[in-house]
């Protein structure tokens, strides 16, 4: 399934195939780094928890999400 991500999150392509695990993970990474509050609200915490350690996030973004997921008791 192809989606059209907002330009402030993804500027290098018009479409993302979220059935492709690599593209879906990349979109999650981009959203955590560049997303606005309304973009972040659409994410599932469990999905973030499952992928967090595989994403290439800046250390401050990674640690913020790691602590938040622990606080909310969202595990893998």
Using the alpha-carbon principal axes, give the shape: globular
Describe the strand arrangement of the main beta sheet, using strand numbers.
1-2
Which radius of gyration do the C-alpha atoms yield? 12 Å
Distance between the termini: 25 Å
Give a nutshell description of this structure:
This protein is mainly alpha-helical and 76 residues long. The protein has helices spanning 21-34, 37-40, 45-51, 59-71, and strands at 2-3, 16-17.
Report on the architecture of this protein:
The protein has a two-stranded antiparallel sheet with strand order 1-2. The mean pLDDT is about 95. It has about 80 residues and is mainly α. It has helices spanning about 20-35, 35-40, 45-50, 60-70; strands at about 1-5, 15. Helices cover about 50% and strands about 5% of the residues. The chain contains 4 helices and 2 strands; from the N terminus they run ββαααα.
Throw out a few tags for this protein.
about 80 residues, mainly alpha, about 50% helix
Q: Secondary-structure map with pairings?
A:
Layout: E1 2-3, E2 16-17, H1 21-34, H2 37-40, H3 45-51, H4 59-71
Antiparallel strand pairs: 1-2
């Amino acid at each position: 399934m192809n989606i059209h991500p907002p330009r402030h999150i993804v500027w290098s392509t018009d479409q993302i195939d979220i059935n492709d695990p690599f593209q879906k993970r990349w979109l999650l990474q981009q959203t955590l780094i560049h997303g606005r509050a309304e973009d972040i609200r659409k994410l599932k915490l469990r999905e973030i928890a499952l992928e967090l350690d595989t994403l290439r996030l800046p250390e401050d973004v990674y640690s913020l999400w790691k602590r938040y997921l622990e606080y909310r008791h969202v595990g893998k």
